[in-house]
Amino acid sequence: MSTYTIPVGPLHVALEEPMYFRVQVEGETVVGLDITAGFVHRGMESLALQRNIYQNITLTERLCSLCSNNHPFTYCMAIEKIAGIKVPERGEYLRVIADEIKRIASNLFNAGILAHIIGFDSLFMHVMEIREIVQDTKETIYGNRMDLAANTIGGVKYNLSNEKIKYMMKQMDSLKKPLEEIVDIYMNNKLVRARTEGVGILPKEEAIRYGVVGPVARGSGVNNDVRVKSPYAAYDKIKVNVNVETGCDVRARAIVRLRDIQEAINIIQQCLKKLPDGPTCIDYLPEIPAGEAVAKSEAPRGELIYYLRTNGSDIPERLKWRVPTYMNWEALNVMMPGNKVSDIPLIISSIDPCISCTER
Amino acid sequence: MERNIQKDFKEKLTQAVGEGFSLRWETDSKGVVTGWCRLNDHSQITNVALIVSNLGGRVITITAYKTKDAQQRDIHEIAYHFDLDGCTCTVTIEIPRDSGKVNSITPIFKGADWTERELQELYDIKVVGHPNPKRLFLDETIDEGIMNKLIPLSLAMNGATSKTLWEKVFAATSKEVDNK
């Protein structure tokens, strides 16, 4: 059978951001893949070296909207390590709450897109409707639906009154039942299973070889959840159950994400119950000495790392970050071959790609 | 468990490079251990990658940057961030000024592929032995080593596009004038 090359992208209905795939096919079966990136590269690492340490909090939050809490969060942690700043306990809990809320919204978005790609649009709308509960919560607590601006050096910029804690508890409770229903659909519905089971296989050993992270790794049985492996903020004080699946396919990755949402609700409720009193942030403007630090966090898509070098001035000497999606792209070379052309968008979406994060 | 992997790493590193490195471990208030290692000889990085690989670790990312030496001259350094069962160990090497080359660790860790290609295009550091050393993000028209110099954003974004556009507009309007 002769081989053809199909261009997918850079713009495609199932991907909101541009990435160009040259897919080699034999008949209807994918046999090879070539990825071309760089359509929205903004040189943000270079920009970060022209802005001061405080301006970079805002800059890193503008990297992408879905993981927009993890970036300033991890960046602030790197600075705090260099300057030896201890974040007040209440601040640490509030950081976890902000992060987990973003995780729920981000994973629900991907779950919705999955339903849309397989043509189950009523499910897509149902998921997005549930997501609105989270969006409303974010807007009420932080004043914004996407960029929360929760983090600053030495703590957080928001606080929760008793009234808001009650409201948040109620919102989290109201998510539980509809979420159980959609998890049931994703796991048991015949149409969803037919499209996702055995599709886009990434075996465990390949997941390790490619160094994939987050739900992509955990869907292939690799547990490298930063929240448990190297705890930060208040994660050492609360119980986090890591969701690992062994299906290695699109379905396994989707289930991990859905279970992560349920776990995030638990984590938020634990934090709200245990929220200690006291300040939310340090009360002085710190000086940042020369030094280097790495900080890691578990973004919705997996491990995010920031490496920061300072030289005593207020401009960083080097700020480098590696986003979770960055590690997951190349694994598509393993997931794609052997699958049908019609599954291409589905497999790409199953790594929950964040192109604005990848290309910075 | 974690303590062992750090001890193993140090032992194997000593076997491989003798005294040619410095290594310290830091533990934060959450009990998370971070390692900082510096190699005297940059070519040993492949040995370090092999050690990490044998210990079941992985490469998280690689950072290249410019810094100053004692004489305030620009030097390039590369920091390799490895993961050893949750412990991040950063191994730093200095790039020799004369050759500007470093050995690729992609044959050992597939996960280093993109990040090595990126540091090559941003800092003009030649990565020797990379299986697929083509450009990753930046257009071919942008010089390699773009992070080594400050350039205007319009140029980085390849402002030639708008120039071409206006040339077309002018060409089209002048034709209209000719036709009249």
Automatic annotation (TrEMBL), chain A:
Record key words, sorted? Iron, Magnesium, Metal-binding, Nickel, Oxidoreductase
Citing just one GO molecular function, the answer is: NAD binding
The record's section on InterPro entries has: ComplexI_49kDa-like, NADH_Q_OxRdtase_suD, Ni-dep_hyd_lsu, NiFe-Hase_large
Kindly list the positions annotated as binding Mg(2+). Answer: 45
SUPFAM superfamilies linked to this entry: HydB/Nqo4-like
Q: Where is the NADH-quinone oxidoreductase subunit D domain?
A: 118-282, 287-360
Which cofactors go with this protein? Fe cation; Ni(2+)
Residues bound to Fe cation: 67, 357
Q: What is this protein called?
A: Carbon monoxide-induced hydrogenase
Chain residues that bind Ni(2+): 64, 67, 354
From which residue to which does any coiled coil extend? Answer: none
From TrEMBL, chain B:
Q: Name one GO molecular function term.
A: NADH dehydrogenase (ubiquinone) activity
Residue ranges of every copy of the NADH:ubiquinone oxidoreductase 30kDa subunit domain listed in the record: 44-144
Domain of life (superkingdom): Bacteria
Offer one Pfam family short name for this entry: Complex1_30kDa
Record InterPro entries: NADH_quin_OxRdtase_su_C/D-like (IPR037232), NADH_UbQ_OxRdtase_30kDa_su (IPR001268)
Recorded hits in Gene3D superfamilies, A to Z, give: NADH:ubiquinone oxidoreductase, 30kDa subunit
Residue spans making up a coiled coil are none
Name of the protein this chain belongs to: NADH-quinone oxidoreductase subunit C
The source organism is Thermanaerosceptrum fracticalcis
The organism that produces this protein has a lineage beginning with: Bacteria, Bacillati, Bacillota, Clostridia, Eubacteriales
